[in-house]
């Protein structure tokens, strides 16, 4: 990205505007890291940084899926429920890591497909469709486990979430692969172009020959698969299968997507943007701990950041 | 002559560097009815917005009852006595007729609560006075389009208006309903109201207006009593150039090409007879008719965007599965009526808008190479003369004419065999119009079959080789080269029809 | 008759909900002797009141075309504040009521202010404020804390026959809300902006101030709910609101109000709250675990929404 594209006569282009938003996020991240390091040098220690990244990983998966759903004017409130349900069911069914992941991915795709079907073919508002699946899934997994989830975590499974390969945590390598694939899909394929154009104007997308219903269903399926993966990674990280695995991730992922530049009105969002936003959120949580502040401040910071980011983007889009 | 009720004095309005209106002088006298004529984009709606306070003038001012006024909001002008019936409906479906008419001006009891009895009584009295037969308690959701229009008119006249501004009021009305509206207008004039009447239908203007003001490109080009005008002089003042300059020469004689598009027994809606016709290669076929005569529905059905029964054939091959994407694959491309609704991707760049039907065009079926869309768009920009600094800018930054050029260029990327164009020059300035006409004729000469829908009769007459006039969903008449004239089209399109839905028929 | 239907915003779907209520009661009577007892009916009502109050607030917001997800945080903070001020004597109790009601209105006004004047989607706004509010509540206390006067607890637990005072209070509020929507200019404005904001604006409806009032009203009702919850539990719990954000939406939707705004009313919400509470109660008697109740609730939402979608596309 050259400087002329940033500040020159082409500064009004759609891409230049999106790049400026990315730089804003990078700048913000650098500033809070710098301030925290000044206050507590412990922040920049490799152990702490790796901790931040590991914490960010499960949320990262979910956020990418959430963003893709938001791009097609949707919203996925069921991601946290999918995380827990996938984890509980696939680990409960088998103790082979490969089988667990295969079942998890299929299950995530299936649930996402149901969400997408309700939205695209039944005309149900995404908010309500995913709210309903969220509640139903909750019932199914509690009924399945009878309230107390079982199943043991295979060793290889733990390794996927906490181990490392050449010094890089495996979970991060996984996230990197997914992020790369998602970015490529969104920016360099016809499919990705159609997703974004659909979000910009669904009617025009239909008239220009886009398979609109399939686009919506596929977006929800991607979100379901990524949520399922996130559930497995999170369970591996924590070490326990829990019926409430991922609780709160639905709202956190929406928050990170919005902070990362996705707009609920659709058509807008980038993988680098939402990953940066995830990093910002997790860093801030970490900072609260490092500085020995009351842990509840995390909530206040998170809420303020959501409002601030939304307000900033709103002002920009009005100009 | 008496003092005008409402007047514009040297009124000008600019948006940034664009001067939309320049020194407009405009009078409405009590009991008079002034037609405001001009092409789309000439500045009529801007003038109305200035007269009613939705916009503030850049210079000049509005006079009401001889006094200089600067309205702070539409509410202020409404309270003073200027009532407007807008083109877009402002009725609320969830509320009743009475609640709509008196929205935010409901009669209240002394406790500040809505006086429901008085609300209904006053509504009934108002409707009675206007001769509108509607129940005050009906939900507006349940009304026909024409009845909603009547609610709009009643709403505008709920308080004692001195001036009534009607913006294209008959666009959605049947012949009978139009007659009823004219009766209401005459009665209002007799009571001393001044009327401003915006319409494209010259017949209507000559029937009910006393004066004419023609605006072209933001300037008043002609003004005077209606008796001093004929259809032709009004059109000349509106267009300001001979037809010959605007339109390219037509194909000579009847088109002899092979049939490209054939429509066989297409049933668009229940109760409408099946439609069959052919469009030949090299031919521009026009679909004329009033708004609501079924032109757009027919076009959408051919394109596969709306469900219909019947067969559509391309070069003799029937198309089985019908959807926009299968039509595109078969070589039918369509430009839709309303750019903003289902044409443009307003937040996306010019390049992406241009490449929307064919994102990976020419390189890979599923991948989009970096910069490929931009490179293609730059070529397109030169070829079609689109005025924009950078194809990466959002398309919302372009003028209507340039947006339309990008949309037409987008269709051509698919090498269409058949082009369906619904209002190809709506909201486009005259210069761009002429360029678009030339382009279409050129495409036809190269062997494309073109189906053009337009509400502007001049456009149909000037552009098309053959014309179907639609009425109530049927092809009511076919006009060949020499027979195509505004009079011939209007006499068919506006003929008295047996079907009318709405108020006048019950009364 | 027309007017009665319009006034109550009665819809055909309400008959379905009524039939469901009848069905659930029949099943309940069949499955347990203890179901059709005054004690049990009073219990059902006690469990219903808080949800009924929040759902009422949500109904008004959704009718105006918005949504309010801030109850999760707001209820926590409001109960904590109330219980920490209320003390034991009437004077501090009155002060607590005044403080909490004003705080509720303030929270709502902040939500409404950001929605109208900054232009952010209400979902994002109230998600943000909810997070902040629950953070603030937890900063004040991590454990349930404070107390309320005994006479207030007695009042909340008191009943006439099998009707708790809470039910009567709730019904009065529903009537008032219905009255507001039918008989006041504000009510018509709410429907107008919920149905078509632009058309309402052209017609001279003050869209911004109407929205502001709607969210403030929602905050006020949240405060009322918080006070009731304190009366039930005797303490202020920073987590009292958890789940209420999404739970408040279910009865609104099942009651026939469209999420898009402008259509529906409070009667449907009330009926839906009743059917949901009865259903939970009967399933308990049938020894069906709450797990299956969740499945049922989710399916009811889908069924309800599908019915309305079918009706709309007609």
Strand order of the largest sheet of chain C: 1-2
- Count of DSSP E strands of chain C? 2
Helix content of chain C: over 70%
H/E topology pattern of chain C? HHHHHHHEEHHHHHHHH
User: How far apart lie the N and C ends of chain C?
Assistant: 25 Å
Main sheet strand line-up of chain A = 1-2
H/E series of chain A = HHHHHHHEEHHHHHHH
The largest β sheet of chain C comes out as: 2 strands, antiparallel
- What fraction of residues of chain A sit in β-strands? under 5%
Shape of chain C: globular
Going by helix content, strand content and strand pairing, the class of chain C is: mainly alpha
Please give the largest β-sheet of chain A. Answer: 2 strands, antiparallel
C-alpha Rg of chain A (nearest Å): 20 Å
Radius of gyration of chain C: 19 Å
Helix content of chain A: over 70%
Report the β-strand fraction of chain C as a percent range.
under 5%
Shape, per Cα inertia axes of chain A: globular
Structural notes for this entry:
The complex is a heterotrimer of chains A (319), B (507) and C (314). Chain A has helices at residues 3-7, 14-39, 46-71, 79-93, 97-120, 126-145, 155-162, 170-188, 190-200, 202-207, 212-238, 249-259, 271-290, 297-318, and strands at residues 164-165, 168-169. In chain A, a hairpin with a 2-residue loop joins strand 1 and strand 2. The two termini of chain A are 23 Å apart. Chain A has a two-stranded antiparallel sheet with strand order 1-2. Chain A has 14 helices and 2 strands. The two termini of chain B are 38 Å apart. Chain B has helices at residues 44-52, 74-80, 97-101, 116-130, 145-156, 175-190, 202-208, 231-239, 243-246, 295-303, 324-330, 339-342, 350-354, 372-384, 400-412, 430-445, 457-463, 486-493, 503-506; strands spanning 6-15, 18-28, 33-37, 59-64, 67-69, 82-85, 163-167, 194-198, 211-216, 219-225, 259-267, 275-280, 284-288, 309-314, 317-318, 332-335, 418-422, 449-453, 466-471, 474-479. Helix content of chain B is 34%, strand content 23%. Chain C contains 15 helices and 2 strands. Chain C is globular. The chains are: A mainly alpha (319), B alpha/beta (507), C mainly alpha (314). Chains in contact: A-B, A-C, B-C. At the A-C interface, helix 6, helix 12 and helix 14 of A face helix 6, helix 13 and helix 15 of C.
